[in-house]
Design goal:
This protein is α/β, with parallel strands linked by helices. The protein contains five helices and five strands, in the order E-H-E-H-E-H-E-H-E-H. Helix 1 crosses helix 5 and helix 2 runs parallel beside helix 3.
């Protein structure tokens, strides 16, 4: 059985390593594909329509084209609208939260500064989206 990829948009090496650690701890079987910017996210997610991402974990504040642009584009593309987008941001700014939900984000999580808490939060994200939710085929 083919496991569709999880696309992680993250420009921080440390935060990406935490995602990988959480995926290992949560026994995620899906490949993790990394994009370092919103623009790279869009190129990757559009490059293989038959290999559509199962889930997008999106950092808002990446260098270059940021996650806001990617979220806006994903939600305006009929072929990608069903892909769940979970925002993982260091920002607790209510404007960012409001923007993301208005643009169709499925969830918004503020990244904890503490590594152990960040790891635990990511494990919960994986458990929910890969264990509790029935995702689109």
């Amino acid at each position: 059985m083919f496991a569709r990829p999880i696309l992680v948009v993250e420009d921080s090496e440390e935060d990406f390593e935490t995602v990988l650690d959480a995926a290992r701890c949560a026994r995620v079987i899906h490949p993790i594909v990394r994009a370092r910017s919103g623009g790279e996210c869009l190129r990757l997610i559009r490059s293989a329509p038959g290999d559509r991402a199962l889930l997008v974990l999106l950092d808002l504040n990446t260098h270059g084209d940021d996650g806001r642009d990617a979220l806006r584009e994903i939600r305006s593309d009929d072929a990608l609208k069903a892909v769940p987008v979970v925002v993982l941001s260091a920002s607790a700014n209510p404007r960012d939260l409001q923007f993301c939900y208005a643009q169709g984000a499925n969830a918004y999580h503020v990244k904890p500064v503490d590594h152990a808490l960040h790891l635990k939060m990511l494990q919960a994200v994986f458990a929910y989206w890969l264990g509790c939710v029935v995702l689109s085929a």
